[in-house]
Predict the structure.
Amino acid sequence: MVGTPVLLIAIPLLAAFLIPLLGMLWKELVRIIPGIVLAYMMILSASLLYYVLENGSIIEVLGGWRPPIGINLVFSPLTGFLTTIMTFLGFIVWLYSYKFKRNVDFEPAKKYFIFLMMLVAGAVGIVLTGDIFNQFVFIEIVGISAYALTAFYTGRNSAEASFKYLLMGSLSASSLLIAIAIVYSQLGTLNMAEIASTVHLMDPTFKVIAMIFFIVGIGIEAEIFPLNGWAPDAYTEAPGPIGAAFAGILVKAGIYAMVRMVFTLFDVPGAFDFLLAIGLITLIIAETAAVKQDRLKRMLAYSSIGQMGLVIVAFGIGTIEGVYAALFLMLNHAIIKPLLFLSGSYLVFNSKDKYISEVNGLGKYLPITSILFALGAFAIVGLPPFAGFWSKLSVLMAAANEGMLLIIALILMVSVVEIVYYFRVVNRIYFFEKSKDVVPHRPSFNALLSMIILGILIIVIGFYPDSVTGILHKAADDLMNTEQYINNVLSVGKSLTN
Amino acid sequence: MIYIIFLIFIGGAVTTYLVGKISSILRDIVFLSTIIVPAVLFFTEINIGQIVNISVAGLQLQWGITYFGYIFALIVTGLGVMAAIYAIPAMKGKKNLNFFYSNFIITIMAMMGILFSRDLISFFIFWEIMTWSSYLMVVYQGNDVQKIGIKYFVFSAVGAYAMLMAIVITYSLTGSMMIDSLVAAFPGFDFTLQLLIPILFLIGFGVKSAMMPLHVWAPGAYSHAPMAYTSVFSGALSKMGIYGMIIVMVSLVAYIPEGHWFREIIAWLGGITAIGGTLWAVMQDDAKKMLAYSSVAQLGYIIVGIGIGTELAMLASLFMAVMHGLFKGTLFMVVGAVEKQTGTTNFTEVTGLIRKMPWTFLAALMSIIALAGIPPLGGFVGKWMLYESLISSNHYMLVIAVFFSSTAAFLYCYKFLFGFFLGQEEKEWEHVKEAPAMMVIPMIIMAIGTFVLGTFPGLILNPIDAGMQELGFVATQGKYWEMSMLFNEWGNVILLQPILYGIMAVFVFFFVFLTIKGFKKTRYVTTKDISSSGEIPLEHENLTYSQNFFQPFYRAVEPVMKRQIDKYYDEFGRGMEAFFDFVRRIYTGNGQTYALYVVIFMVLLLIFKDFIFGL
Amino acid sequence: MKNELFEILQFGIYSASILLILIGLYAVLTKRSLIKIVIGLSIIDAGIHLLLVAIGYINMGTAPIFSPGYEDAAATMVDPVPQALVLTAIVIGFAVTAVALSLVIRLYRHHHTLEIDEIKNLKW
């Protein structure tokens, strides 16, 4: 072990604020420090995860105030797994955007990397924390970084996208705060474990109302149906690697928060069916909206929303196989969608509007990028023997075990729609003629390396899914097992008083 | 050993692609050996019943070949090797060859994988691999990819996903993925499931075997893929659908008696496919499309046999499946040869090649005779057994349907021969030479195969019999001559053959005798050296007509042809796209609207909280 | 303070905070100028902060500060936690408002209008 969980949040925040200062010494430091920090975070969380898989969760108490009064961090198989994915993705995004577009200049690079560090720190914070208000604070940190990063480029519609995001984000924050207020006024505690153990004492009406406010609050991060209006715009206007970061890091944190709330905090039985229904609606609307898009990144954004809808459906099935399937889907999505965004970003590099018709014929000019995009498309649709197949299969099996035939049919119908729009793009890349005014831009070595790493992972998981299934089973078990969570946290509190 | 075969395939696919960047001769050698070596290994080393177990992601996979799968493996490996040899000269000069060869290997591997799968998950995995690798071949030449390629993939995907749904339901009910456990547990399911699961499987298999109404992808896909691949595509890949169908129809619904409406529907679907395919084939001017529709029709015959379900019918279907692989594979190769030598496959443009491509013509002639079902070649055996089984099970209307289709098939058979080979020799095709030897040899070998199987059908019927016994039919070996009038005492030689051969021998003898005798006195004449009523045609006059070849026929069947299923699918697709366009308008682009959605959502949840959260 | 008076006051404060939230929401949803929308967001924040503080209030409670000589104040102080929460929330609200206003400036420079109806380049 090379550290404790709190370092996973503290160090990137520290680095984020030191970058401008150190940047005044030597300009390259602005780019190098995030890389070092993210690599360190990746190694730390991986080693902690390994430890936790053997020995059980680590509960870290912050500031000496024991739970349930103080804030504690919970590094369990589930949270550790998500943290590892997020830090890994953060590292890949750093690798890709080392000198991407405006990052070659000092000023923009400084701001970009500050916010990237804060984004990762905040997302990791959402996942690791055991206190709902702390979670709210981290959601806001992530939110502000996201607003800033969306508006990174001037000169196109980024400010508009960012403002819409901000508008909805503020509404969600307010809703979340109201929810926290209701919970605190009824239960007198902000600690998740304590809430979980006393929630059954809460007045049912208040419980449901609090849960509704929570859902609206967190749902905007998690991109569920009516609340995801900001998402297509934000993904389109943000820089390519940031779109990847949103898809891979941000929504995962949001869904984690939602799921933690439904599974652990509240014991409302109808919540699972609600998740199922809202996930299905999100999935169907997002995938059908993606078909007629003529902008590449917007299409990928809708596809991302749809995949998250599928994840929520899997969580909504409510059994441990469902959770396992949902986590597998999250893992695969976290690898494949960033690959699509990253390679897609080079495919429409020089265009202003990022129309899909501009990728025509680039298979010849950008061979590796195109093959990686095609690989990503094949994988996300769920074709064997690539990674996406195993996760789709587990969702269907989990649904079948509960006898949800209609849901299986709907998921499969939507998969056919997915095939249509992805393959249309892949066909354009390889079989159409490049138009004269499109100037292909070859990716730099670091960008290519980051994409190839993701591509190799897809093939490895596809051919050998057992490499990840062990971790996934433990993580799924962890989520379903509320009592263990409560015991772990509260026993630390008791032991500290002695 | 099973591992080694698949490892050779995968390694070969990757190596072919990489080696091809260095040297093309090396790549050709690697490619051929990747196809031939596993084929040889398969026939020498693999025993039926050998099983390997693999455990992946908590699921048990099991690979092994059965007697029944062995029949199809013969088709796949045989056709695969022939097509591979054919492909090397046929694809010379085209782009992206490394990709073509690796993909070819992947398709063959996927088909072998399907046959080796004893559990449903490997079956599905290999099925999907086969689907996407054939899709890549269809779009390989790059014309019309959005329409044809995506139509193919969407149909395949719908079929495959229907199958996946059935597989997943099975898993939840039986807890295991093995095909055997599905078969064993099937009678115990409740009625809706017993209806649903076979229908889902049949949709999946029906798409691949081009059963109506799921056949609309076939003409486009078959004609757009390179001919070297289409011989495998039509000859072997569609048989994978048949393989699956037979397992469903025989193992799953085995207890449904003959004459039951489920079997009748399948048989009639096959019959309609046969008629529709033949009629459409007659109308085509392009050889590729014609052969595509003809494939659909032939598969229709096979499906009729499967639907009927008696032992003789199954024998007929399986025999026809093997024969179809042989002669259709050869025919596609012929078309490919003509395309390579002349640059076009349209009947109205090319004609009169008989003297220039004699070996190609011979292969085409023998395949056409086999297709039409004329003795002494193999197609006759299959067709006869099919008729016999239809009559003996009292399906008289189907007999009429199949007979009508067979007769109409003569029309396009003749057109194929006439269009390319007979007819007047034109000046622009003077330079055409015979196709390269490596292309001709596989064609001739397969043509000889049709001949051999026509005379000694027992060669194939024995493995078919073993396969059928495994599926639960009684041994037909001992009942051949009771089953069919066709065979002699030992059940493996056609009764009529000796007579036919005798007659043919007489003709051949006289022909040779006259040729040799008159050799010095023969005079070479062109096709225009004729006179009708004393008039000799001039140089530029065209004596061949191939436009609107079957005009009267078309007028006769026009009312039937007006209804095209393809149009319905197109309309459906367009309707869906319009709906999708409507859906995306939800995201209006106005920030306040989105905020309004949030508030409305919250209010709705608050009002209906009891209903939604069930408290 | 008498209990009934306290009840009325408590009710009054709660309704005031909810009223503030509703006013802010009204502004966000119906006003067309961007600045007014941002102001609406701030009003919503103010309402929620008021709500939070009001939740923590105990009748006749004292300020939640320990000082020498008043160690037993813990028995009668108001709940300090919501006050801490509100402090944090105020800071967050301030930061978000700052980001929002800078975005409004950029939007104005780009589109030369502050009407939210006009700013619809990204749609569908």
